Amino acid sequence: MKRKSYTPEFKSQIVLEILKEEKSMSQIASENEVHVNQLHKWKTHFLQEMPQVFEKQNKDKEKMKADYEKQLDNLYSEVGKLTTQLSWLKKKSGIYDD
Known about the structure:
This protein is an all-alpha fold. The protein contains three helices and no strands.
């Protein structure tokens, strides 16, 4: 007999339904054809992992900010280099900016 596989979306939906506490675990298990013990495991796992969701969001934001700042520094560096090259070329060619 093949084990049943559930998507993360399905598990999330079930855990949210459990957390609403509008129905009993047995009722939710029966309606979704999932054993009550499995629901307890999903709920426990979710509650244990929940703080990491917020940590990940903060890390993602910090990484995006660091990447943005690095890109900005690179662009400023490139602008400075090009400005210096342009000034040098103008000086060498006899073109002056008034």
